[in-house]
Design a protein that fits this description.
With 287 residues, the protein is mainly β. The chain has strands at 55-69, 71-76, 79-83, 86-100, 104-120, 130-135, 138-152, 155-166, 170-175, 181-183, 189-202, 204-205, 211-228, 232-233, 239-240, 244-247, 251-261, 265-273, 276-286. The protein has a single domain (27-39, 51-286), classed as Lipocalin (Beta Barrel), CATH 2.40.128. It has no helices and 19 strands. The strands form three sheets. The protein has a ten-stranded antiparallel beta barrel. Strands 3-2-16 form a three-stranded antiparallel beta sheet, with no helix packed on it. A hairpin with a 2-residue loop joins strand 7 and strand 8 (155-166). It is elongated. It starts with 54 loop residues before the first strand and ends with a strand.
Length: 287
């Protein structure tokens, strides 16, 4: 009987905005065995078929480190301002994935994220000084699904979709020209992102024990919005509307590699480009 483990968290971050890893498109089909039970194929015509064989659980660590997410200032629904120079995020989280029929994953992450902005200050302090905005480390979460659509030998085609949210409060704004710090008490923000992606992978495997290398490549479309609370106090103490931020580029691509051992544990490393510069790490273990 399969053991259900429902929690795995964890915290800590350090410096860098968020976009989401594409992930290995065949990930839902890579972990065929569990630590406490040997996997078996699902055959509905088998008289010995059990629904317990149709699902499995994986837990692990998820780390995503975005060195620059291409963002721009949104002045209104029809007008956009200047690009933000650098937007960064580091996320460390627990990862939980529920798998069905070795084809579909439904997953969530629970953890902590640290945001940062470096850009011109005309939209935040009313002067064209370069500023650095820091935020308090905030709880973050995401939900998503991934499915293997087609397999032919070692090739696989898969799709994924995700949603991410965090609500970081502004800590302070540093003016790099005059060296002044302004600590902010009333500036709340909400970051949201949604993404869909498609990718292909190829599995290279050995036996005794089973070790597999699974390189992959994927394309993604990611939309989002970073909303600042209206009529917040700005650096010069004047009340006024603070602009929202939105992705400057919606399309990106990813390349990565998954290493699995005995179809039970695995580590995935991925790099993402075009709409962002980022690297992510996912280590997981199937029960």
């Amino acid at each position: 009987m399969k053991r259900l483990v429902t929690t795995l968290l964890t915290l800590l971050t350090c410096g860098a905005v968020y976009a989401l890893p594409v992930g290995n498109p065949s990930e839902a089909s890579l972990f065929m065995n569990g630590a406490f039970c040997e996997g078996s194929s699902v055959d509905f015509c088998d008289p010995c078929f059990s629904w317990c064989d149709a699902w499995s659980l994986r837990v692990g660590f998820y780390g995503d480190y975005v060195f620059n997410r291409n963002m721009q200032v949104r002045l209104s629904d029809d007008d956009s301002g200047a690009d933000v120079d650098t937007t960064t995020i580091d996320t460390n989280a627990g990862y939980i994935a529920l798998n069905f029929f070795d084809r579909v994953d439904i997953f969530t992450t629970l953890g902590a994220t640290n945001f940062g902005i470096q850009t011109g200050g005309q939209y935040f302090i009313g002067a064209n000084h370069r500023v650095e905005m820091t935020f308090e480390t905030a709880f973050s979460w995401s939900v998503g699904a991934r499915a293997t659509l087609w397999q032919c030998g070692c090739f696989a085609l898969g799709v994924e979709g995700q949603y991410f949210q965090s609500n970081p409060d502004v800590n302070y704004i540093f003016d790099t020209v005059d060296g002044s710090y302004s600590y902010i008490n009333d500036l709340d923000t909400q970051y949201q992102e949604w993404q869909v992606g498609v990718g292909v992978s190829y599995r290279f495997a050995t036996s005794c024990p089973t070790i597999a290398l699974v390189p992959y490549a994927g394309l993604k479309w990611a939309g989002g919005r970073w909303s600042f609370s209206p009529n917040s106090v700005t650096i010069d103490g004047a009340a006024g509307d603070t602009p929202d931020l939105q992705p400057a580029k919606l399309w990106g691509y990813a390349i990565g590699m998954t290493l699995t051992l005995c179809d039970v544990v695995g580590v995935t490393v991925e790099g993402r480009f075009a709409d962002e510069k980022a690297v992510s790490v996912l280590g997981q273990f199937r029960f």
